[in-house]
Amino acid sequence: MSEPTTLVDVPAAASGRRTMTLNMGPQHPSTHGVLRILLELDGEIIHKADADIGFLHTGIEKQCETRNWAQVVPLTDRVDYLANLSNNLVYCLGVEKMLGIEVPLKAQWLRVLLCELTRINSHSVWLGTHAIDLGAMSVFFYCFREREDILRIFEMFSGQRMMTSYIRIGGLALEPPRGWHQMVSKFIKAYKDKVDEYENLLTGNPIFVDRVKGVGYLSLEDLLDLGATGPMIRAAGLAWDIRKDEPYSSYEKFDFNVPVEQESDVFARYKVRIAEMRESAKIIQQALDSMPEGDWTAKAPHVILPDREQMKTQMESLIYHFKIVTEGFRVPKGEVYQAVEAPRGEIGYYIVSDGTTKPYRLHMRTPSFANLMTLGPMLQDRLIADSIAALGSMDFVLGDTDR
Amino acid sequence: MSNDELQALPLVKSLAAAQGAAGAITEGVQQFGELTLICNPAQIVAVAYHLKTKENFERLVSITAVDWYPMEPRYEVVYHFHSIKTNRRLRIKCKVSSEAAGMESTPAVDSLCEVYRAADWFEREIFDLFGITFRNHPNLKRILMPDDWEGHPLRKDYPVHGYKYSYQNE
Question: ipTM surpassing 0.85, yes or no?
Answer without folding.
Answer: yes
